[in-house]
Amino acid sequence: MACFLYLVHQTNTLMMKILYTFLLLFLGFSLSFSQVNKEKVSFASGDGVLITADKYIINEEYPYILLFHQAGSSRGEFNDIAERFVKLRYNCLAVDLRSGDNSKYVRNETAQSAREQNASINFLDALPDIRAAIDFAWKLNPKKLILLGSSYSASLIMLEGADNPNVRAMIAFSPGEYFGDELRMEESLDSLDKPLFIAVTDREEPYVKQMMSNIPEEDYTLFKPEKPGVHGARALWEDNVSKDEYWLALLLFINNLNQ
Fold it and tell me: Which of 29, 122, 188, 197 is such that its CA lies 20 to 30 A from the CA of 152?
């Protein structure tokens, strides 16, 4: 895996596009003709805050990828990303966490609910929202889940996913030490027995490596694009010049899960 990614980094732009297109086809990225049904759903967090999410269903029997946004954002961050994941034969649940605002003209309804209840909306306070989303998706289909986090939620899904028995793997875009004196990720991550994919930019790589210093490097996949990187799951957006690199590395990781 690591060797292949190294070779990919050495290819020119044309070869990258060829490899990317081949893998999209090979992994079924564009082979599904089923209708995707999108539905807004809601469920309660542990403290009663009403959580809003978008459910993307292609087949009730497929497992779920849960999608969590970055700071100041909403479930709208994943409008296009979720549409692609379902073509990999995964259902998706894109969740509004209580710490956020809006993205792609989609308002964060969970944040509004939290404000109406005078609930705390710090980053760590969103951890029960993630747990509630896992429980909700598990009831829909009791197959182990994949968690995808963006920025602060990337750190949260690593904390929750490491010990949650219903989580199969984690995908973390730009995790970091976002919690100040409340919690240090480096001290909290001392073991890992589940597949973990981490995507970083040039600037993020050194401190993410420090954050992961207690975990052997062979126990997780760390990806940095050759082109300029983008913070968080926005790296997968269509307007990012390095999106193909991110998607290629992510497709390889997901395909490896299915071997």
Answer: 29
Quickly tell me which residue has 């100041």 as its tokens.
72
List the one residue out of 131, 180, 181, 137 whose CA is nearest residue 156.
131
Listed in order, strand segments (DSSP E) in the chain are: 37-44, 50-57, 64-68, 91-95, 102-103, 106-107, 145-150, 167-173, 196-199, 221-223
- The token pair at 112 is 């509004």
C-alpha–C-alpha distance, residues 28 and 22, integer Å = 10
Question: Are the C-beta atoms of residues 38 and 54 closer than 8 Å to each other?
Answer: yes
Quick: pLDDT tens for 84-133: 999 999 999 999 999 999 999 999 999 999 999 999 999 999 999 999 99
14: CATH: 3.40.50.1820
Enter the DSSP assignment of 48: S
Consecutive H or E run containing 218: none
What's the domain range around 21?
A: 2-257
Query: For the whole prediction, is pTM greater than 0.85?
Result: yes
Position 23 scores a pLDDT of 54
Residue 191: name the closest of 158, 240, 221, 225 by CA.
158
Burial class, 32, CB count within 10 angstroms (exposed 0-12 / middle 13-18 / buried 19+): middle
Q: What pLDDT, in 10s, does the model give residues 14-32? A: 455 545 545 554 444 444 4
Question: Which amino acid is located at 15 in the chain?
Answer: M
**Two tokens at 39?**
């539905």
Cβ atoms 50, 42 nearer than 8 A: yes
State the total domains in the chain: 1
111-146 burial string, b = 16+ CB within 10 Å, else e? bbbbeeeebebebbbbbbbbbbbbebbbeebeebbb
Write phi, then psi, for 81 (nearest 5 degrees): -60, -45
d(CA 71, CA 12): 34
